[in-house]
Amino acid sequence: MVWIIVGIVVVIVLWAVVTYNGLVSRRNRVDESWSGIDVQLKRRHDLIPNLIETVKGYAAHERQTLENVINARNSAVAAQDSGDPAAAGQAEGVLSGALRQVFALGEAYPDLKANTNFLDLQAQLADTEDKISAARRIYNANVRDYNTKIQQVPSNIIAGIGKFTARQFFELEDPAAERAVPTVSFS
Amino acid sequence: MAVTASPLDDATLRQVFAHAEADVTMPDSTKALRKLRMQRLWQARRGLFLTLIVITAVIALLSAATGYPYVAGVVLFLAVVTWLIIWGVQASRATRDYLTRYATTRGLTYVEDGDVNASVPLYGRGDKREFERRFTGTIAGQPSALSHYTYTEVSTDSEGRRTETDYDYTTLEFPLPPAVAARFAGVYLSPNKWSFGKLQDKLSHDRKVELESADFAKRYTLRVRDDQDDVALYELFSTTFIDRLTRELEIHWEQVGPSLVLYRRKHELDANDLDRFCLEGWHVLQRYLEEHQ
Q1: Given B105, B122, B150, which residue is the final one in a domain?
Q2: What's the pLDDT score for residue B112?
Q3: I want to staple A134 with a disulfide (CB 3.0 to 4.6 A). Which of A103, B15, B234, B237 is the partner?
C-alpha cells in the first residue's frame, strides 16, 4: 500500500516537472520569436531617416507628410522599447500608414519616383514588411501554443503555481486606415 | 472508370512546356492504343490466329471425346496463357508508344531507366529504388525531369518467406538556384498523416510546423528540417499560398537544399494528368523563386 502511494507521488512529481519544463520551453520560444520581430522592426526604423532625406530633396514642402512619418517613427521606437506587443503593434500600424503617404508622393513627383535611392529604399522597406509579417505569424503561433497550454487542464495548475501569465498577440493596426471610409469613383 | 483531369489550354501548356511541338494532340489513352494494337495484330495475322484457334479447338474436342479430358484442359490452358502474353506485350508497347508520343509532343526526351540520387528522403526510401521511366527536358522554364519512380520494401517473415512491396510515384524534379536553396534547408509537404508529435520531432532531424489554417492542416502535414529558418518558411507559405494549396492545388513535395521534388502517389499514365501535375509543380516552383526576387 505504501509503495502504491509512493509510486503515485513519483508519477505526479514527474508529470509536474515535465509540464513545468514544457511551459518554460514554450515561454522561451515566445521570447525568441519576439526578438525576431524586434530585429525587423529595428531595421525598418533605421531605413526611415534615409528615406526622409531622399524625399526632402524632391518634395521639401511636403512638410506635414514628412513630419507625420518622423513622429510615427519616434512613437514606434518608443513603443518597441517598452516591450508591449499591443502598443508596438498599434504604433507600427500608424507608421505603416504614414509610410504609404510618403510612397504616394512618388506618383506626384516623377523625379522622386525615378530616383534610384528612393526605389532601393522602397524595395528594402517592402522586403522588411514581408519579414515582419512572417515574424509576426511565427510569434503569434508561439503565443497561441503557450496561451493554450497555460489554460488547458491540468497544465493550468502548474501554470498558476509557476505564475505563467498569458502573452499578448502582435497585431498591426492602423486606426486611421480602419476609420477611413473607402470612396468609389466611376469617373 | 478512372477520372482524368481536363486538358490544359494551349497557351498554358506552352508556358509549362517551352519546347512543345506545334501539334500536341495525344491518343485518348493507353487502353485505346492497346485496343488499336490488338486490332492491327489481328488483321495482320488473322490467318495464323484462326488456324491456331481451329487446331486448339479440334485437339481439345478430340481429347475430350477420346477420354483424355486433361489433355483438353492443358491445351485450353496453353491457349489462354498465350493470349495473355500477347495481350501483355501489346499493352506494354502501347504504354511505351503513348508515353513516347507524350515526350515528343512536349519537347522532352524519354528514357526507360535512370540512376536514383538520394537528393531527398523519398529517393532514399526502401530496399530497392528505380526510375521506370524518365522524361527530361525543359519544364516550367527549368531543366527538369518528370519520372515514374518506384521503391520496393523487402521483408522476410519468420519462415523465411520473402515479400516485396512496391510503392509507385510520379515525381517532378526542379533544381533551385543557390540563393533560393540557401534559405530553405528542408521543407516536406505530405498528405496529412498521424505522427508521434514531439517524440517524433526528437527522434528525427525534422519537426512539424502547424500553420494558421485548419483546412490546410486537414489536408497536409508540413515538416521542416531542424535548421530551417522559420521566417523564410513563413514567407514561402504566405496566407495567399496556403489558401491556394487548400482550395486549388493538391500537391506534395520534398525540398532539400537545391533539390525540389514534387510527387504524386501513383504512376500517372494519362497525358492530361501529367500536364496538370507539371502545371501544379510550376506554381510551387514559382513560389520558391518569388521569395528570392
Answers
A1: B105
A2: 86
A3: B234
10-residue mean pLDDT profile of chain A (187 residues): values are 93 95 95 93 92 84 86 92 88 91 84 87 91 94 95 94 94 60 49
B212 with A141: Cβ contact below 8 A = yes
Q: Which residues of A touch B210 (CB under 8 A)?
A: 141
Residues B144 and B254 in one domain: yes
Q: Taking CB atoms and an 8 Å limit, are B230 and A130 in contact across chains?
A: no
Interface test with A, best of B228, B234, B236 (most A CBs within 10 A): B234
Q: What is the pLDDT of residue B1?
A: 47
Query: Residue A85's domain is classified under what CATH number?
Result: 1.20.1440.20
What residues make up the domain containing A129?
11-168
Written as nine digits, the cell of A105 is: 508622393
Query: By the CB < 8 Å criterion, does B199 face chain A?
Result: no
How many interface pairs between A and B have CB atoms less than 8 angstroms apart?
A: 24
pLDDT of amino acid B201 = 66
Tell if the CB–CB gap between A135 and B210 is shorter than 8 Å: no
CA distances to A51, A65, A100 from A125, in Å: 10, 17, 11
CB atoms under 10 Å from CB of A132, counted, come to 22
- Residue A174 domain-assigned (yes or no): no
Quote the pLDDT of residue B155. 92
B231 lies in the same domain as B139 = yes
Q: How many domains does chain A have?
A: 1
- Tell whether the model's pLDDT for residue B117 goes beyond 60: yes
Residues B98 and B151 in one domain: no
pLDDT of B260-283, one tens digit each? Answer: 999 999 999 999 999 999 999 999
**Is the pLDDT assigned to residue B235 strictly greater than 50?**
yes
Residues in chain B within 8 Å Cβ distance of A33: 230
The last residue of one of the domains, among B87, B105, B123, is B105
Residue B87 sits in the same domain as residue B151: no
What's the confidence (pLDDT) of residue A128? 92
Percent of chain B with pLDDT over 90: 58
Contact B176, B255 (CB under 8 A): yes
- Chain A residue with minimum CA distance to B211: A141
- Give the range of the structural domain holding residue B257, as residue numbers without chain letter: 110-290
Domain count, chain B: 2
Contact A135 B231 (CB under 8 A): yes
